Amino acid sequence: MKANLIHPPVLEPIALAELKLHLRADSTTFADNIDVTQSIAPGSHATGTGYDLLGAAVDVLGVSALVIFESGTNGATGKVDISIQESDDNVTYLDWTGGAFTQVTTATDNATYEKAYTGTKRYIRVVGKVLLAACEFGVSIIRGAATSVEDDLLTGLIQTAREHVEDITRRALLTQTWDYFLPAWPNANFFKVPFGNLQNSAGVEPIISYKNTAGAITILTAGTDYLVELNDDKCGMIVLPYGKPWPSTTLYPSNPITVRIVCGWTTAALIPAKIKSACKLICAKLYEGRGEDVLGQTVSEDKIVQRLLASARLWEEF
Question: 285, 185, 281: which is closest to 240 by C-alpha?
């Protein structure tokens, strides 16, 4: 199979905090295990026309997060609404379901309120609205961001374990972009693409192009020149529409057909537990065998990994 990785995954199947819990390895002090970001600075905030107080965003990928809303004194009849928003890209934010704090009035001010973020997005921020009179308050985001001298090592082990599992299963575990090359158009009216969990939504549909002997590149039109079958977590397929042939031209002699695909589960939460368990087992063995010959792991450990991954393997040949 000829394929090039274009965009590697930005997520891993297990978070650093998960692995630390599995290994029982962590920092030694409470202060080392958290950090705090002022999303909305404490102070007196004037009234506005809506949620015009936009708090600073925080990356919560792989860590637990707690939002602390500290209310001071509300002005006479003043009211404060605070809500948590979430985002995949730190650009487009939407309200997180369950992220709205109970409105604070003069009857409930001078108190501290908290809400744990349990969503699945990478970034969160808070937005605020002040009604009727200026109010004093501030909002902070606390992350359970445990750090230790071994964090870089553990992060590297997570990536190594994920890549090893991908080699065994022939899968792309989490969203990544590949160019898959064909030497010629198939004889059948379809062909499969590798790695499983093919994605096909706006902006990430498979893009098929071919090059002729003159080096000119033609891009096919999805839905007109070809159809896409996702096949869930199996290998996706590119299919010709009824009565439509593959392009007829003399192809370039080397890698003339390129199929750009986006594949993998979109979040770590969607990865089957057996795959995540295999990743943790591999990490634990690599961690235990630092500086030693880890190739000598016991047969039973190797069999456990193989058995965990057996039903997740893709058997198609490319």
Answer: 185
